[in-house]
Design brief:
The protein is an alpha/beta fold. The protein has three domains: 186 residues, Rossmann fold, CATH 3.40.50; 88 residues, N-(1-d-carboxylethyl)-l-norvaline Dehydrogenase, domain 2 (Orthogonal Bundle), CATH 1.10.1040; 129 residues, 3-Layer(aba) Sandwich (Rossmann fold), CATH 3.40.50. The protein is built from 17 helices and 14 strands. It has an eight-stranded mixed sheet, with helices on both faces. β13, α17 and β14 form a beta-alpha-beta unit. The longest helix is centred in the middle third of the chain and has 32 residues. The radius of gyration is 24 Å and the shape is globular. The termini are far apart.
Length: 428
């Protein structure tokens, strides 16, 4: 049996993906109420395909709040999401508490895999740290780079590109239970030392950040000179040095939790060890600037001329198909405009409006537009694109439509009489 310890977003998705591969799974979390909820097929997270995956494979998975049951598992994944604080630093305390709780319950010969994202050095020091706290466990320990992407987590978990595996000895044969689990997914394996694997996850994200930052900078140049980034991007995709899968969609900075966490981690590691990482600080500053693109547009087009403006906001999640608002540009916009009336709608996110001055939440996108002077589409949910721009215009008082990601039909928006603004192109 394969165990998953920590049933946050990561643990839920990976445990279900393992069951889908035909393996018997036990999911553990000290919150027994959560386990009862999961056993009923009720999930505290949102992912496309999640309910269908559970219904198809629920006979092979069970969730329990009893740590003693972990003693039956030959292979255990520690799969707790590592949260970040307001400065985007990893908070390892919940993970350390969880390891304290379960380490003594793990079978002596079991293999443990740290699936959480942790800073370089964590995995190698884990056994020593546990021993110092009076917890002894003799099994083999690995670190594996997770591939979780909110909104696309099921697909990524079922069909990973590769597995990066951190090992005490990269040349040693992998334990049987772990080798069988890896084989079930049929993807390339990259074994390496613990610290290399921990840094590999960060390296992937930093290379992604460099593409995001370059794309956003050039998109702004397009807006200023009359070029259109949507015409430039195909030229880059046909260059083998960049490729068809490069991240070339303009965005509002580096949203979500992991990318900024990794930037902060590298900045701190460089400072601690005397390395130069000024480019990382530049990326962080650039992200803050990009995040406020919509704020600058609405201030220029509406707020500089009206003291009593009403803003309609579509989308609060940091991207579609997730309920997460970590580093959400929409929340950054809302927090920057406490004195302005705002009416917002998101298909999944549920905020406490009392925490945000002059914010009202409504149950439909069109209700948010009623009497609004401007509409800002801050999350490009697919359902928003199905609403006819002429219909939107009927609900609104003003004509400013700020659509950073181009989720709506630009030609239809202009035909409906909107002043239309999109990232990477001159306003129309």
């Amino acid at each position: 049996m394969i165990g998953f310890v920590g049933l946050s977003h990561l643990g839920i998705v990976y445990s279900l993906a393992t069951a889908a591969k035909g393996l018997e799974v036990l999911g553990f979390d000290h919150a027994s109420g959560l386990c009862d909820q999961l056993n009923r097929g009720e999930f505290p997270i949102a992912e496309p395909g999640l309910d269908e995956l559970y219904q198809s494979h629920k006979a092979r998975i069970r969730f329990s709040g009893d740590a003693a049951e972990l003693g039956r598992c030959d292979l255990i994944f520690v799969s707790l999401d590592v949260p970040t604080d307001t400065a985007n630093r990893s908070d390892l305390e919940p993970l350390e508490r969880l390891m304290d709780t379960v380490a003594g319950r793990i079978a002596p010969g079991a293999t443990v895999v740290i699936l959480c994202q942790v800073p370089p050095g964590f995995t190698r020091s884990l056994k020593t740290a546990l021993l110092a706290r009076g917890v002894e466990w003799a099994g083999r320990l690995f670190y594996q780079v997770e591939t979780l992407i909110f909104g696309n987590a099921i697909e990524r978990a079922l069909r990973p590109e590769r597995f990066i595996i951190g090992c005490a000895d990269p040349k040693a044969t992998l334990p049987g239970a772990y080798a069988e689990w890896l084989k079930a997914f049929g993807c390339p394996l990259l074994p390496m030392r613990y610290e290399s694997a921990e840094l590999a996850k960060i390296a992937i994200n930093l290379f992604l950040v460099s593409t995001v930052s370059t794309t956003n900078a050039l998109s702004e140049v397009c807006e200023r000179i009359g070029a259109d980034w949507s015409e430039v991007a195909p030229a880059l995709r046909l260059d083998r040095r960049i490729g068809p899968h490069a991240y070339l969609a303009p965005g509002l900075g580096i949203a979500g939790g992991n990318l900024e966490r990794d930037l902060v981690t590298v900045r701190n590691l460089a400072a601690e060890h005397g390395a130069e990482a000024g480019i990382v600080e530049a990326w962080l500053l650039d992200s803050r600037y990009r995040r406020d693109w919509a704020l600058r547009k609405v201030q220029e087009g509406v707020l500089s001329q009206q003291d009593d403006a009403i803003l309609a906001i579509w989308g609060l999640a940091y991207k579609p198909n997730t309920h997460s608002t970590k580093n959400s540009p929409a929340l950054g916009l809302i927090e920057a405009l406490p004195h302005v009336a705002k009416v917002a709608h998101d298909p999944l996110v549920r905020l406490d409006p009392a925490a945000y001055p002059r914010l009202q939440l409504v149950n439909s996108a069109l209700d948010a537009c009623r009497g609004a002077d401007a509409l800002l589409v801050m999350t490009p949910w697919a359902e928003f694109a199905k609403i006819a721009p002429a219909r939107i215009k009927d609900y609104m008082k003003g004509r400013e439509l700020i659509d950073p990601f181009g989720g709506l039909d630009q030609a239809a928006c202009i035909a409906a009489g909107f002043a239309y603004h999109r990232l990477g192109a001159r306003s129309m």
